[in-house]
Amino acid sequence: MTYKIPDSTRIGHIHLKVADIERALSFYHELLGFEITQRYGDQAVFISAGGYHHHIGLNTWYSKNGPPAPKHSSGLFHTAILYSERKELAAILKRLLDAGYPLTGASDHGVSEALYLDDPDGNGVELYWDKPREEWPVDQHGNLMMTTESLDLEELLSIIQSME
Questions:
Q1: Taking 70 as the threshold, does the pLDDT of residue 164 lie above it?
Q2: Which site in 36, 42, 60, 156 is 20 to 30 Å from 28, CA atoms measured?
Q3: Is 54 helix (H, G, I), strand (E, B) or coil?
């Protein structure tokens, strides 16, 4: 019999090797807004959203002043950060644009809308929100039919503009 992981299982956190803690914090803490929950000297920092002990660990234990990992090799493709509402995704998009931080992509996947960028160490980051489950595209048999379409950034930003 094939083992099935329990439905209640969740990904707890991710721990990233970075070259420079302060440079990584300028991205994750200052730009994206994660809170610092604990520092381990100048070698590691734990950060979170909403007071959790940590969603992301950043460390230089094996990577201090090192180069980014090669793009065309095995390893992490991206860290996905899930926002609970579309307006939160719109707000972080505006923040990134105001800061001049480059996006590497933006997609509507049918089930979600996502912004893609790289952190200062070249690690991929996806910022996204899930559409309501009843809106997810399925075929006639109920199988999920995810897509990759262009995300209309102007329309997404209009959420913020309508709130001002």
A1: no
A2: 156
A3: coil
Q: Which residue has the tokens 């439905």?
A: 7
Residue with tokens 């959420």: 159
Q: ∠ CA(10), CA(15), CA(123), 5° rounding?
A: 105
Tokens of 133: 């489950």
Q: What is the mean pLDDT of residues 94-109?
A: 98
DSSP H helix total and E strand total for the chain: 3, 9
SS3 6: coil
User: Is 0.90 topped by the overall pTM?
Assistant: yes
Q: What is the overall mean pLDDT for the chain?
A: 95
DSSP string of 124-160, one letter each residue? EEEEEEEPPGGGS-B-TT--B----EE--HHHHHHHH
Alpha carbon distance 115, 154 (integer Å): 13
Nearest to 131 by CA among 146, 116, 119, 143: 146
Q: In a 3-state reduction of DSSP, which class is residue 22?
A: helix
CATH of 77-164, one of 3.10.180.10, 3.40.50.920, 3.40.50.11030, 2.120.10.30: 3.10.180.10
